[in-house]
């Protein structure tokens, strides 16, 4: 990467003032496209790993000097675990995770509402794996060659035309490439700049100008290592997952998970507009340690199977406690020209189903497949590939988006209708329908078309993804060559 204000490219010198119109014909080359990835989150890192495997040049740019993922708990399922197995991350994941095979729902007074027992491993061949998010992040980050990831490089703006895309960073440097991937999160600067430009041109759907929804606020943390004599559940090799759902006077849901390291992760969710704590300060201020005590003191008495929430608070490092808005939005526009959005930049899901990170990484897998099919590299083929990525992913994400809203009402909702819904689901829904839903949800397992597939696991049928056009063409050529050689 150059830090000069003029970047040389295969089509000549591009002034730092920006792209200018050109009467030259579009560049066509047999070289793979150079991919510029804004954002070193999970989606950006997984995409980088797959591009490394595919031999496609790329660079990753992260706006911060250091990424500090929230100490939140993640749960990955068979929808993404085969892809991680394909890139040799799955075995590492097993070392720092626990299988989550059941969950129990209680009232705020610890009266049993219902429970579920997961049959994921039996049906899909994979356990639902639960672990601390930073563990996965560190594992993926180490897979990226150091010279291909650049910290403190915030994308300020970009310009694109049929010759390429040029990024301008906040340090006033520029860089030229063939494709820009916005993997920079829910408040993506790439998306904001792209949408601003498209809006000025009258190309942006009105729905993409709306603000993201904010329906819930959560504050979460993880204890330090606990004494097994007092908390024996931490020694169980499987995760113990408990949901406590308050009544009308206590419109909260509080959740605990046992995680590796003899720790318990906790999460408290409040539905906006239904609790006194949801005042102006709580809604608008940043989460800082000085504010923790007041907020946490008001809910210390909440009961859990391990004692009160206050006891878990006291075991949790205060600097590791976070405040998070549960925002959600499904954007219509994922790609325009040479620019494409993945992960939270394209779709922000509620965390109720645990599928936000899964969908972000699935985006990366499918986009890698589409980029691999670009041959020769031309503006038209790039646009076709990016639109193909969106076509393969949009309806699937749309269905997940709706599911995340439904499950959020079930787990976190405290309106009268949501309480009735919860009662019906836990008391009247047949187990056979629950299993049928697991089978349906687990059928889609995208992997890279250009790599050997992970072993097929489980007993349920798998949805076959769209095959690689390039791989098919190359195999056809090999078969024709072999036939010709045999005829000689």
UniProtKB/TrEMBL annotation:
Name of the protein in its database record: FAD-binding domain-containing protein
Record has Metal-binding as a keyword: no
Bias (Low complexity) ranges: 479-488
Organism: Linnemannia gamsii
Region (Disordered): 452-488
PANTHER family: FAD-BINDING DOMAIN-CONTAINING PROTEIN-RELATED, FAD-DEPENDENT MONOOXYGENASE ASQG-RELATED
Family membership: Belongs to the paxM FAD-dependent monooxygenase family.
Highest taxon, organism lineage: Eukaryota
Keywords annotated in UniProt: FAD, Flavoprotein, Oxidoreductase
Lineage: Eukaryota, Fungi, Fungi incertae sedis, Mucoromycota, Mortierellomycotina
């Amino acid at each position: 990467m150059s830090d000069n204000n003029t970047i040389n490219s295969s089509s000549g010198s591009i002034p730092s003032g920006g792209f200018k119109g050109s009467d030259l014909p579009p560049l066509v080359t047999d070289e793979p496209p150079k991919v510029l990835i804004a954002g070193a989150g999970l989606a950006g890192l997984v995409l980088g790993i797959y591009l490394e495997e595919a031999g496609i040049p790329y660079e990753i740019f992260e706006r911060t000097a250091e990424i500090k993922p929230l100490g939140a708990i993640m749960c990955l399922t068979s929808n993404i675990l085969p892809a991680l197995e394909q890139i040799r991350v799955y075995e590492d994941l097993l070392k720092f995770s626990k299988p989550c095979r059941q969950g129990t729902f209680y009232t705020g007074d610890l009266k049993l509402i219902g429970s579920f027992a997961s049959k994921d491993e039996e049906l899909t061949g994979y356990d639902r794996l639960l672990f601390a998010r930073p563990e996965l992040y560190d594992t993926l980050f180490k897979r990226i060659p150091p010279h291909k990831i650049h910290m403190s490089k915030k994308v300020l703006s970009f310009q694109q035309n049929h010759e390429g895309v040029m990024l301008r960073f906040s340090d006033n440097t520029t860089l030229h490439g063939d494709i820009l991937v916005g993997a920079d999160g829910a408040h993506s600067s790439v998306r904001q700049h792209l949408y601003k430009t498209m809006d000025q041109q009258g190309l942006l759907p009105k729905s993409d100008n709306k603000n993201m929804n904010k329906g819930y606020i959560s504050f979460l943390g993880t204890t330090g290592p606990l004494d097994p004599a007092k908390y024996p559940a931490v020694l169980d090799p499987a995760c113990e997952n408990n949901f406590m759902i308050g009544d009308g006077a206590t419109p909260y849901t509080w959740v605990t998970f046992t995680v590796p390291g003899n720790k318990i992760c906790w999460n408290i969710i409040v539905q906006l507009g239904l609790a006194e704590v949801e005042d102006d300060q709580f809604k608008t201020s940043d989460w800082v340690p000085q504010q923790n005590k007041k907020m946490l003191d008001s809910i210390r008495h909440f009961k859990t199977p391990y004692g009160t929430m206050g006891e878990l608070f006291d075991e949790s490092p205060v600097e590791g406690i976070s405040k998070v808005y549960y925002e959600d939005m499904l954007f219509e526009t994922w790609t325009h020209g040479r620019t494409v959005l993945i992960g939270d930049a394209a779709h922000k899901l509620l965390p109720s189903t645990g599928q936000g990170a899964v969908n972000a990484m699935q985006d990366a897998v499918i986009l890698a497949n589409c980029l691999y099919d670009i041959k020769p590299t031309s503006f038209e083929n790039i646009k076709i590939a990016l639109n193909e990525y969106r076509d393969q992913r949009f309806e699937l994400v749309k269905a997940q988006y709706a599911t995340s809203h439904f499950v959020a009402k079930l787990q976190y909702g405290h309106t009268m209708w949501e309480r009735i819904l919860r009662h019906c689901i836990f008391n009247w829904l047949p187990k056979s329908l629950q299993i049928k839903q697991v089978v349906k949800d687990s059928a889609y397992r995208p992997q890279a078309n250009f790599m050997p597939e992970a072993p097929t696991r489980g007993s349920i049928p798998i949805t076959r993804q769209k095959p690689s056009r390039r791989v098919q063409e190359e195999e056809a050529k090999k078969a024709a060559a072999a036939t010709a050689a045999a005829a000689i």
